[in-house]
What does this fold into?
Amino acid sequence: MKKFIRGNVIAFLIAAILSVFVPALAFDSQAAVSYGDYLQVQIGDTKKGMRLYEDGMYETTIKVPAGVDNYQIIANDEVIKDESLDNEDNKSVVLIRYYSKDDKVVTSLDEVTDDNGNLVQLVKKVANWTGNFFNAKKVEEFKQFGSWDQSYGNTYSRLNYEGGGIFSREFVYTIPAADSKYAYKINFDGAWNNGEIGDNGGNMYVTFPSGEGKDEFFIWADSVKQTTFNSINDENTVFKVKAEDGEDQKDYVKPIGLTDVDLVLTRGSETHSFEMLQTSKDSYMVTVFVKAGNYSWNDSIDGQSGILSGTFTVDKDSAVTFYYSVDSEDYAMRNTVVNPNLYYGDEREQNEEIEDIQYDDSYIVESNELLQLDTSVGNTEVDEGPYDVKILMIGNSLTRYNNVASKVKALFEYAGINAKIDVKAQMSASLSDHATVAANTYKDLIINGGYDYVILQDKSSGFTEEMLEM
It folds into this structure.
């Protein structure tokens, strides 16, 4: 949901002309696939869409049925890679990454030995912001990180895996009384000599300015390109949003990484927002899996309307990737339907039940379908229990991540309370998305499901003043 008729033919011709006269924008003609292709992984009877990241990298996570040791990568329903898995540890979820320009596949199971005899994982699973943090005169919250503690079990300084080899995290901290300087590196999988990011092998440095109150710090790392940036050392990002005073637009300036950037996608009366992943200092990307139809889109910056918008049409199930450049010299949004041959960072959900998602490798199994919520009405099956309390959680990835439902249930069990926790959560969905797609289903669940409590979780931008007044 999320033909090539006249408008698209014109766009294709323009893209073709640009690729001839602007070679830097052209897709590598030797690549096995085109950016407009729909890539999927198939293991057994299960298919999962692959998301496109910079420089022609595709990636997805997928469940591996017991006893299955081979998989295929499919482009537009044709098998382009037939591979095997070395799954000796019987992992139930595997990340599969396809480098289309090199026609190479790696998985989260793959590892090699370097020239010094060190074991190196080809897909980094865990990243830590590691440094000399244990110092009482510096930022209080960072002391728990330890002193150069790179261990796998150190979750305090762990970054979140975002996809495409990218890790990031936003930390809220107490501003120190005096300027506080830290030496640090980004290390992976709880070990050194495993592709850690530093300054030509040495330490990097960041200084937290003195002051009062609380502040936010964002750090980002690409384990594939071996690059990193943060919201103190690097320049602010300048977005363009619609002005409220009659002017066409205005600049919206934020420290790098500390902005919620969304793609707003509309088909007919349905509108959905998709969080865009920051893929470099000045670019964001998102892949949406959509069904046939006519779509319009626009950008949203911290809940404000951006200045970019457009339309596209697809005549079948498709994967559409949007590339948002916020470079001052190239402020634009491209997508792989209208612009299949242009620059995408090249170098010059069936809903899962919480209990079924595996977190062993710090990956989240995402849906590859756009808001495929159960829209049945009047068919609520009531599980009578017996339970002491029944709770329904409705939300998005903030509810799904980190096994929230299971942890809440465990707290009840610790108190001797038998709790039933049901979850209806969809990646990147707002409450308005849920209400638009499946309002009758939720009304039926809430009225007839026998719940004692219903927990509603909106997007991270939260409730607007208008919502609270409704």
Observations:
- The CA atoms of residues 300 and 389 lie 39 Å apart.
- Residues 6-111+238-335 form one domain.
- Residues 431-448 form the longest helix (18 residues).
